[in-house]
Amino acid sequence: MLLQLSTWPEVENYLSYSTGIIIPIGSTEQHGPTGLIGTDAICAEVIAKGVGEATAAMVGPTLHLGMALHHTAFSGTISLRPSTLIQVVMDYITCLAVSGFRRFFWINGHGGNIATLKAAFAETYYHLANLNIPHADEIRCEIANWFMCREVYQLAKKLYGDQEGSHATPSEVALTQFVYPDLIKTATLDTQVASGYPIYGAADFRRHYPDGRMGSNPALATPEQGQQFYQLAVKELSNSYLEFIAKA
Amino acid sequence: MLLQLSTWPEVENYLSYSTGIIIPIGSTEQHGPTGLIGTDAICAEVIAKGVGEATAAMVGPTLHLGMALHHTAFSGTISLRPSTLIQVVMDYITCLAVSGFRRFFWINGHGGNIATLKAAFAETYYHLANLNIPHADEIRCEIANWFMCREVYQLAKKLYGDQEGSHATPSEVALTQFVYPDLIKTATLDTQVASGYPIYGAADFRRHYPDGRMGSNPALATPEQGQQFYQLAVKELSNSYLEFIAKA
Amino acid sequence: MLLQLSTWPEVENYLSYSTGIIIPIGSTEQHGPTGLIGTDAICAEVIAKGVGEATAAMVGPTLHLGMALHHTAFSGTISLRPSTLIQVVMDYITCLAVSGFRRFFWINGHGGNIATLKAAFAETYYHLANLNIPHADEIRCEIANWFMCREVYQLAKKLYGDQEGSHATPSEVALTQFVYPDLIKTATLDTQVASGYPIYGAADFRRHYPDGRMGSNPALATPEQGQQFYQLAVKELSNSYLEFIAKA
Amino acid sequence: MLLQLSTWPEVENYLSYSTGIIIPIGSTEQHGPTGLIGTDAICAEVIAKGVGEATAAMVGPTLHLGMALHHTAFSGTISLRPSTLIQVVMDYITCLAVSGFRRFFWINGHGGNIATLKAAFAETYYHLANLNIPHADEIRCEIANWFMCREVYQLAKKLYGDQEGSHATPSEVALTQFVYPDLIKTATLDTQVASGYPIYGAADFRRHYPDGRMGSNPALATPEQGQQFYQLAVKELSNSYLEFIAKA
Amino acid sequence: MLLQLSTWPEVENYLSYSTGIIIPIGSTEQHGPTGLIGTDAICAEVIAKGVGEATAAMVGPTLHLGMALHHTAFSGTISLRPSTLIQVVMDYITCLAVSGFRRFFWINGHGGNIATLKAAFAETYYHLANLNIPHADEIRCEIANWFMCREVYQLAKKLYGDQEGSHATPSEVALTQFVYPDLIKTATLDTQVASGYPIYGAADFRRHYPDGRMGSNPALATPEQGQQFYQLAVKELSNSYLEFIAKA
Amino acid sequence: MLLQLSTWPEVENYLSYSTGIIIPIGSTEQHGPTGLIGTDAICAEVIAKGVGEATAAMVGPTLHLGMALHHTAFSGTISLRPSTLIQVVMDYITCLAVSGFRRFFWINGHGGNIATLKAAFAETYYHLANLNIPHADEIRCEIANWFMCREVYQLAKKLYGDQEGSHATPSEVALTQFVYPDLIKTATLDTQVASGYPIYGAADFRRHYPDGRMGSNPALATPEQGQQFYQLAVKELSNSYLEFIAKA
Ligand code: NI
Ligand code: NI
Ligand code: NI
Ligand code: NI
Ligand code: NI
Ligand code: NI
């Protein structure tokens, strides 16, 4: 049940029996020579829809822009500053809290979003406590990183070993191939790929990761593997969502 | 050519022959008893993709959240504050300007976005002029409201007359029906529908427009009409885009 | 009745029978080789005072600084950033709302202010709804652009035709001549004057509008015409104000 | 020479021989039962014009809104928050610095502005140093409080002794009477007037200063005294301005 | 009684009989060739602790970073922007106001903090009035500048005369020597030392005060004098604090 | 070598051979019935000083206020909002980057700071890249959480097992006892202690963790254990710091 494809009376009706909502958040950032710039948003969105179907939960509009400042030396990356993203998250939650939602389950496709999301949640709880919204103190947010699902992680290790890397990974590329099987990109990938270097500013990042990959070999990805990741993530996050909204 | 479905080298290549980009911006807001909450984003996005195909232009990720504070008394509406949206637009443009983009063509689906977008563009030009980006003074933004295209407007008047109204209009509903023919919602619509009352705060808006419609009769909409609107808008905005990027 | 020339008990007394206030907003920006930098503020203020007298309404202090970032490549222009102006408008309205004012009639002298004002009103309604002010949901703002009054517009077209242009217009210059008949400036004006080019950043604006005028011939202006504009604007906006505060 | 009454070429010409500008800043706040709400702006503006004439200096538009949050429990007071005023001052100076101004002489009519102005200047110097404006490190601001001019202060003490008080003072009221001799307000003033209590929040202020005066007896004011204050302030601040711009 | 060295039940107990708290604020800024960069924080903290002991008052954590933008051209200076410091002060007070504190006695070691602190207090009172905190209108802040204590000032004048200067003064250096007798720094100090030049931006400051001192001769300082300053300041500020919290 | 206890020429000299600095950041928050409110700052500071001595590194002033909004329902907690803390960190780093520092090693005592610090670093790199600071792209920050040092963690598990918990832990309490052996607090601690419940808003936190502890038994702590933790943390973080500044 997608919020964007619902009417307001349908939302009102939904709120009569559930106060939970699933929110996909991705990023718009370079994913190496073959990965789609929208990878993180595509993955978060498709899994969120799957979880929404499996649990009959409402799914809100995807946040396509995340915190990817360190990727901005590559063409096409669009990042919010953390202070902007905090305001966006605060506005997003506040509006829905006014509507009556109380459980916000963020399905996240980008590791770089986690810190800012956590900061945003803390600031939002505090902000809501200062407004006159009934039950403001019952608002809860949870981040669910699909790529950190136990079975997703295990499958990635099994399939790719160290070549999974940490950015532009074969697992996320596989998932986008599953979603867009006609959009499988190829390029000659240097077999030597940088890894392990910490993330600082954008120019520094590009100096150390010249083609954008971090230790990964996305050429290993296939759409079939993508489907497996999809199914594992949907299963695990559906359970997580149901536990989240069931908690007293 | 969708930015989200491109790789960074593809974007770099695109920039070697064009600096233009199309950006869809919608809103997530009530659209009456039968209109989809995502109507404005759906319309902007589908038309932007059509224009992108027709003109071989890059299309950036859709901004699903716009300025809809006056709709927030209806369940499911999610609005950014104007000051938040200004920061989002500033971040969006700045990142792409650093990449080398210089012509930003915003295809807009929501009248309530126009004022804040204009404010944001002004602030962004000024901001960019203070940074060290080469050619910052050549950055240009244009807003293209699909619903204000001459032929779109004329067709809406011809088909619906006064029942077009100004929010939750049959024309925009028709367009969403064209995109999602399986999602045509029905409800008993009061034949008396408020209109002409100005927009102030959210509670006031709901008092005056109790079911969310502003003078419209969305029951008149059909998917076939939606297709017509789509084609007219794509044609007209494709011309607008080409003129925009051709201008010295 | 000018707020600045009243005492607080007088304001308190005024609030016992009216909650309306008129607020002039102008700009401090170049107006071509012969137009006063304060033109927009001068025009808004004098008309606001006229309307205030005609309707026995309170008139607040003029905002001399508006949104004129695109004029900042010309000496003497002072602009607020949109995000600053939003805060100013929010503070202005909030203080008066706490006093008990509920109808804010903004007489505006500068087209460039409109977008930011609209954004500011939306943000202010939302802000006030979150505070504990009684009747916050009854706060209403209206923008009245004197230069868009029907009869003002018609007279300008009749007197000047296309030479009215869109910035540093003979109509606004005439009005300042009516106010300051001793300050009529002259300069050799190029008969070729740029027009029709959209507004982007400041450097770009000056490149396209090298003397600051936009399609206008302010040499046509006379103080007598200014008086006519004054009278037409005061008459029309007095009616608008009375309708505004009478509305339920 | 008033900026608002100049054209941009006149400003450009002025900048060829002087980089100094005088900026009046007042406040819009209760001034007791008989004082005008605009007292501080009226005083600052008239003196600034006098100094501008005496020294052939440019005078910028008056900031009518200052930092008067502690007066907001009285009807008609309009205050900017300090954080808003800082942005306004930063925008004001930045625009003029881009034009080429380097010496900003702020003639201030309200004690409550001083702290925020000082904070704003510091933040502005820092901000300008980060931009690409030539000679940013030569920007200087000075606050000139007309009511703290030595001879003004001495005359007030001589004329009114302790009844000068510290807010809604007879000296400032006298000055407004000199400017607006037809607007002399009267009211029965309690001979017992609170004084010496520190300033905290707005509700607290009104509890301790129930009619808004702080230890003053504005009934002592006459327009003739106002003229004397005017002349003393103009003389002293003209000297201050000339010294300020002459300093290496 | 230091807040940092207390438990929350101890704070709760303290609040049952007192709502006062002492907050030391310093700065991290150059203090000439021999003065410690932390001088202002060291002085404020040690005196605050002394006052806390003498009056059995709670002492909050020291704010080490103040408003020292004009010193940032010297290595090691760390300053907050005024707009940042305002937010810090607002957060500091708001949290403690929620706990139940109502009297905030700021012991300040740096003249450059005063303006921003005053601005911050005004903004905080206003902010708190908009929240739902009980007794928000009873929150009061007071700044106590130890170096402006009457007897401190007199002793400094007596000991050092004009060589006290106004920054990197022997009195504050003496106080740090009393606290850190093993850290007495020496350097050849030019006997000619700049003084009397106003403070503008950082580069300008360093041009006029090349070694950082403002008219002072810190070589005159001794730890014994530091002890005297300490005792005088603690005595006077203890009285001030007790008066402050006793006031109705 | 403490920045606060150095002179600016000493800092300048230090910069001639090192660009590294250690910055302790803690929090001011409830630590259960017996833990000091300043625990996190005390631990971070003492370890930072130890590392500074062991590595001859400069140590900057401690940030006593961190992100502890979820603890604000307990008396005495003082938290910055994440958006405030981001500005503080940005100002802190920017000033030192202007001085010439390039390696910022943040020794952190509070898990709740990590997310906001990471967000702040990202925003700061981006901010610095837009300024004119030489070598802005070489600025690097690293967070070192003393409580996550491998041997610290192992010792805590060995000494306390599950009773280590995750807030108001015996390990951090032991460390404060080592620093302040005279300040060992006792209280009757409920043997049943909540644990495992996620962190949302402040009121919710207190409902679930009524005495502030999260699964811990701080009564197990001894000063001797504190010394062990101190030594292990200093040893490990000294190595980390040296690696950090040695990295190309
Ligand atoms: Ni990714
Ligand atoms: Ni719509
Ligand atoms: Ni104009
Ligand atoms: Ni006054
Ligand atoms: Ni000092
Ligand atoms: Ni802790």
Automatic annotation (TrEMBL), chains A, B, C, D, E, F:
<protein>
    <submittedName>
        <fullName>Creatininase</fullName>
    </submittedName>
</protein>
<comment type="similarity">
    <text>Belongs to the creatininase superfamily.</text>
</comment>
<dbReference type="GO" id="GO:0009231">
    <property type="term" value="P:riboflavin biosynthetic process"/>
</dbReference>
<keyword id="KW-0862">Zinc</keyword>
<dbReference type="GO" id="GO:0016811">
    <property type="term" value="F:hydrolase activity, acting on carbon-nitrogen (but not peptide) bonds, in linear amides"/>
</dbReference>
<dbReference type="Pfam" id="PF02633">
    <property type="entry name" value="Creatininase"/>
</dbReference>
<keyword id="KW-0479">Metal-binding</keyword>
<dbReference type="GO" id="GO:0046872">
    <property type="term" value="F:metal ion binding"/>
</dbReference>
<keyword id="KW-0378">Hydrolase</keyword>
<dbReference type="InterPro" id="IPR024087">
    <property type="entry name" value="Creatininase-like_sf"/>
</dbReference>
<dbReference type="InterPro" id="IPR003785">
    <property type="entry name" value="Creatininase/forma_Hydrolase"/>
</dbReference>
